[in-house]
Design a protein that fits this description.
The complex is a heterodimer of chains A (147) and B (149). By secondary structure, chain A is α+β, with helices and mostly antiparallel strands. Helices cover 25% and strands 35% of the residues of chain A. In chain A, strands 1-7-6-5-4-3-2 form a seven-stranded antiparallel β-sheet. In chain A, a hairpin with a 3-residue loop joins strand 4 and strand 5. In chain B, 23% of the residues lie in helices and 33% in strands. Chain B starts with a strand and ends in a 19-residue tail after the last helix. Classes of the chains: A alpha+beta (147), B alpha+beta (149). Chains A and B meet through strand 1, strand 7 and helix 3 of A and strand 1, strand 7 and helix 3 of B.
Chain lengths: 147, 149
Amino acid sequence: VPDILHRIGATDASPDQVYRAITTCDGVSAWMTPTTGEEDLGGVLRHSFGEGKGSVDVEVVELRPAERVRWSVVDGPPQWLGTNITFDIKQDGDTTVVLFRHDGWAEPDEFMHHCSTKWGMFMLSLKMLVETGTGRPVPDDVPIGNW
Amino acid sequence: MPDIRHRVGIAAPAQRVYSTLATEDGLTDFWTDHIDGHSEVGGKLSFYFGFPEPAAEMEVVELVPGERVRWRCVEGPAEWVDTTITFDLKDTDDETVVLFTHADWPAPAEFMHHCSTKWATFLLGLRSGLEGGTSTAYPNDVAISHSWR
């Protein structure tokens, strides 16, 4: 089963800071896309990508402060249904490392290639957010093509 | 075996995208400014990233003009040896789509996570360079962590 993997290191940002950016609607909205919903374990978050671009609903299935966040996709593009998104956070000297994994894809179709590159840009946006206070969430995200 | 996959759409003709990926000169605008070798099928390309020894040596296994470039890693980081890197180009109406695959990693280790993000930045730099912006080939590459370049 193919997975999407990424790794970033944020300098002079604590694991707590990174954890908050991934577990709050305000945080996720500042690096990924406008996000609303219930932040607690078992809650559902909705990521909205803008008019005509649809949205993704994820259930928060694991929350380990400053260590791990895991979402399970409950609604969204058909290829995303039943997939899981995991953020593992760890400290490495002056850097907080995030290991990202989006797993459970049925097949490595062209859309998966696209999402892999897009997640890479969002991970860099998360790094920018915790390092500088400003990320590049939708609609200011890095364009990667006409999709 | 786990693979790294990416997709970018570039507003440039497939032939220009191909030339960047299939020639030594072109590759200096994509990956690193220091390359040795010959981009021809059966030839080897060495890619240098600031050290006297190349970080990776690739055998060119496939060159299909306007469509595909494929390499096999013959020397480099242990995890890279025998992996293959493929750039498939698709001419759509308004852009050239690059489907990138770095296939057959032995395991999804932390280094593979890192390389996936790093490849995304190089592919975005390829897009930017071909669309009139700046390329992000080494040493002007995007830093994605302090601990690993």
